[in-house]
Amino acid sequence: VQLQASGGGLVQAGGSLTLTCLGSGNTFSINAIGWYRQAPGKQRELVAAIGSGGSSNYADSVKGRFAISRDNAKDTLYLQMNSLKPEDTAVYYCNTVWRAALDDGWGQGTLVTVSS
Predict the structure, then answer these.
(1) What is the pLDDT of residue 76?
(2) Beta strands 9-12 and 110-115: pairing type?
(3) Predicted pLDDT at 25
(4) Which of 7, 13, 54, 96 has the greatest count of CB atoms below 10 A from its CB?
(5) Measuring CA to CA, which residue among 109, 95, 112, 101 is closest to residue 50?
(6) Residue 100 and residue 31 in contact, taking contact as beta carbons nearer than 8 Å
(7) What backbone torsions phi and psi does residue 28 show, to the nearest 5 degrees?
(8) pLDDT grade, residue 26 (50/70/90)?
(9) Residues near 99 by Cβ (< 8 Å), separated by ≥ 6?
(10) What is the structure's pLDDT at 90?
């Protein structure tokens, strides 16, 4: 499955933003998929992931503020981001968990900038 993230932009601290990841191919629904981010000068990190059955996990830094969800009928993954902080500024990517573990399959990502 090929995945492409979109929905980034500039938002003030405390604001909200929803990212969308559109999949192509016929295996979207069976894959665990995650949102990852890479801030300037830092390594890429997992933000949140969701399994094929809907179970999810989050990085401690975003728990209670971000929510990951998926619509398998639309081959679409979402990341609802609330109470955004300047430290959430990064390029956000979506990827299947297994390809991310191989450091493969990264698309262009979408830039989120949170101003203070």
Answers:
(1) 96
(2) parallel
(3) 80
(4) 96
(5) 95
(6) no
(7) -55, -45
(8) confident
(9) 105
(10) 98
pLDDT tens sequence across 58-110: 999 999 999 999 999 999 999 999 999 999 999 999 999 999 999 999 999 99
3: amino acid identity, one letter: L
What is the C-alpha R_g of the chain? 13
Closest CA to 18 of 83, 109, 81: 81
Q: Which residue has the tokens 């990502």?
A: 109
Question: Can you give the three-state secondary structure of 4-66, one letter per residue?
Answer: EEECCEEEECCCCEEEEEEEECCCHHHCCEEEEEECCCCCCEEEEEECCCCCEEECHHHCCCE
In the numeric block, which tokens belong to residue 13?
């601290």
